[in-house]
Amino acid sequence: MVAFVPLGTYLMYRSTRGISRVTQAANEAAQGFLDPNMVVDADGEIGELQEAFKAMAFNLRKTIKHIEYLAHVDGVTQLPNRLKFENTAVQLIDLSPRAKGAVLFFDLDRFKTINDMHGHAVGDELLKHIAERIRSLVAEFFKPHVTSAPFVARFAGDEFIAVLPGMTDAEKLMELSETIIEKIGRPVRVGSLSLIVRASMGIALYPQDGARSEDVLRCADMAMYRSKEEGRDQATIFNEKIREEALERQKIESHLMNALDNDELRVFYQPKIDLTSGQIIGSEALLRWSNPELGNVPPFKFVPIAEECGLMTPIGEFVLRQSLEDMNRLRTEGHDLKIAVNVAPVQFQSIYFTDRTLGILGESGFPLDRLELEITESSVMDDPQRVMGQIMPIKEEGVLLAIDDFGTGYSSLNTLATMPFDTIKIDRSFVRDMAEDENQRAIVQLILMMARQLKMNTVVEGIETPLQFDQLRAWGATYAQGFLWSPPVDYKAFASMVRNGLDTSAVIDAKVVSH
Predict the structure, then answer these.
(1) Residue 340: pLDDT band by 50, 70, 90 thresholds?
(2) For the whole model, what pTM was predicted?
(3) HSE (CB half, 13 Å, CA atoms) of 409?
(4) E strand map for 230-377
């Protein structure tokens, strides 16, 4: 017995030692600690159990790492994704009170057009190239100026973001950012396609623009939108004026959402004058908004917001419906007037634009040959074939078409000649400087001559002086509108002008009016 007890104890220890090790590893795994390097030191079935547990721990750890990779890396560009950026930004900014640096917010301009025209596969391939270009350019230009490696991530869709620890020189930031934007805009080869996509950038500095990463990002985002508003393909550094305007924009957006339902929108009319007879032959319908809290909000402030918020389609339909109704009232009095109504570029993005427009025209009973739809040249040039497909059924019903703000964009004269336009509207910017600028006079004369050759009417905007009136009439312009005769007025005032006629000898003081 004296010999058997120690021997039995030893044998039991040898037989259970491996199980104890597996039990310990299982308890650690339950707490989140996986050890794929567990020692296998038992024989028989217990040794096999240790081997199986070790293999299981190894595969679980590998799977967890893959899940973490998928959770933090963008699948298209292989850059860190938004979640990884947010975690990293908290470490670099929120948890480092003494940290200084900059955040860059990139947004690709009109990337959706490429997706729509060439498909998402081409779009994804382009994003890969652009992502690598941004990553390498940020590393190349900013690495010498930062205290630790720049962090670049894909934030969402066509948006990218970079954190530059230690980079606080605003002048250098702008200089290098403009270089990067220029290089981003160079052609990218995707298969047989050579594609160009440009970027708008916003820049915010920390801690002056925010002590939290969330605040700094918001400031960079606001600065990026300022870049877009000022023409895209550029960089803007955040400042307090941008914050104030963003707050104003937010307030406008909030009230605008209910403006149509609250009957706050009105249609004003600016008389259109026949330059030969000097008589009113029609008008342009212009949208106006008066809010109880905000007062009269200028169109240049609220129209872009309406376009971005998806409100422009119902608002555009309201303007068309109301203007046709008003002109019908004057027709019952015997006044045969034309009416010109603007079509916002975003309205063409709706697949129902043609059907809904034709429905409104049919319901109105207004003679369609007295209606003219004004289309900006930018909306035409973005996708001529699609716009043609939408406006031709309307044109075939007898509606006239005008190209608006001609000369301010990038019109192709060949496209202009082949599109079914009846009228060219010459932008007020050419007229304003005619007296002092010989080149502007030459441009106006050339446009008028081209219109005659194409057998198109012309409407000149922004006539404010008798001299401008005399020159344009002598050069053969067809129609005109401007403060020389009247600013945009409500229906009641316009109807009074139509009934009583204009005092063409009176020159109204020149003012600047926005659409």
Answers:
(1) very high
(2) 0.71
(3) 17
(4) 235-237, 265-274, 280-291, 295-297, 338-343, 371-376
